[in-house]
Design a protein that fits this description.
Elements (H helix, E strand, L loop, with lengths): L2 H26 L19 E3 L5 E7 L4 H16 L4 E7 L6 H13 L3 H10 L1 H4 E2 L2 E2 L1 H8 L6 H8 L2 H16 L7 E4 L2 E2 L5 H15 L1
Helix pairs in contact: 3-4, 3-6, 3-7, 3-8
Length: 213
């Protein structure tokens, strides 16, 4: 084999390796969820913050009793501030801890009075007062929420209502559809966070911002 033939053979081999490497890299990247699952991703009326016209949406399925959720909360706020007007966060309920289903009903009832964010911040900041050994105490959680300026009587009526029960049931079913088995679970513009971590979430958001703007 002459040098020219050897050079061509090596070049072809390198090209094949490169293409295979690119294909493998792409296969490892988060892909959009299937179109038939998109209706399960967002719910009209769910709590959200950030730019109303934002092109990047972070959907978080969370449990207020989840310690990791409370740790990620300020980090999500930082992302909304960093990409002001470009990124918004939508919160969905995934009450996986024992007793949390009643607590998220209380949160949604506070949401009806425009107090979701103060309520969830209060619960996150005081988890040790109403969560013990990963079990939620709804009575203690409710006592905390009632320290906020809201209509307590209306709150009591709402969180026990069929209306709120249906909203929570919808989020639970959507979580099952999307295979949410732990909290927090994030989706960015339809892409699930496959490798959990804050740096990984930041990278996914940065990628979405670059693609959208």
């Amino acid at each position: 084999m002459n040098n020219k033939s050897l050079f061509i053979g090596v070049a072809v081999f390198i090209g094949i390796i490169f293409i295979a490497g690119v294909s493998m890299y792409k296969s490892q990247q988060p892909s959009n969820i299937a179109k038939d699952l998109l209706p399960a991703l967002e719910r009209t009326g769910a709590p959200e913050k950030g730019g109303s016209g934002a092109k990047v949406t972070i959907v978080e399925f969370f449990d207020p009793a989840c310690g990791t959720c409370s740790q990620f909360y300020p980090l999500l706020n930082n992302l909304v501030k960093k990409y002001q007007g470009k990124v918004k966060v939508v919160m969905r309920y995934a009450p996986l801890h024992q007793g949390s289903e009643d607590v998220v009903k209380m949160l949604e009832s506070a949401h009806l009075q425009g107090k979701f964010w103060p309520a969830v911040e209060l619960l996150f900041a005081n988890q040790s007062r109403w969560v013990e050994h990963h079990v939620s105490n709804p009575t203690s959680a409710l006592a905390g929420i009632k320290t906020l300026a809201l209509d307590h009587e209306q709150l009591e009526q709402d969180w026990r209502s069929d209306k709120i029960a249906k909203i929570i049931a919808r989020d639970i079913q959507d979580g099952k559809t999307l295979k949410v088995r732990a909290t927090p679970q994030f989706f960015v513009n339809g892409k699930p966070l496959l490798v959990f971590g804050y740096d990984q979430l930041v990278s996914l958001v940065e990628e979405a911002v670059e693609e959208s703007y």
